[in-house]
TrEMBL record:
It comes from the Bacteria. Keywords: Electron transport, Iron, Iron-sulfur, Metal-binding, Transport. It holds the Pfam family Fer4_15. Signal peptide: none annotated. Residues 13-41 form the 4Fe-4S ferredoxin-type domain. Ferredoxins are iron-sulfur proteins that transfer electrons in a wide variety of metabolic reactions. It comes from Paraburkholderia caffeinilytica. PANTHER family: FERREDOXIN. InterPro entries: 3Fe4S_ferredoxin, 4Fe4S_Fe-S-bd, Fe-S_cluster_ET. This is Ferredoxin.
Length: 81
């Protein structure tokens, strides 16, 4: 079912992680540990590319703080997923 033109379409924040670019600084996981995790080698990963509601601001801040630019965020409408 499609939303009516007057209904706002909810946005969903997604994260894109370039693990090959990650150098293991861990800044992302310090800022937003609910979204960004570090593996045994200190390389970032996410359990889901969808950011839970309420964590959007922290997830964006953590992505922007990455010294290597290994993380990006993207807003998508719920209909695109």
């Amino acid at each position: 079912m499609r939303p009516s033109p007057s209904s706002p379409v909810p946005l969903q924040l997604t994260v894109i992680v370039d693990r090959a670019a990650c150098c293991g600084y861990g800044v992302c996981a310090e800022i937003c540990p609910s979204v960004y995790k570090l593996d045994d080698n200190g390389i970032v990963y996410v359990e889901s590319d969808l950011v839970p509601a309420g964590l959007e601001k922290a997830a964006k801040e953590a992505a922007a703080a990455c010294p290597q630019g290994a993380i990006a965020t993207e807003e998508k409408t719920g209909a695109q997923r």
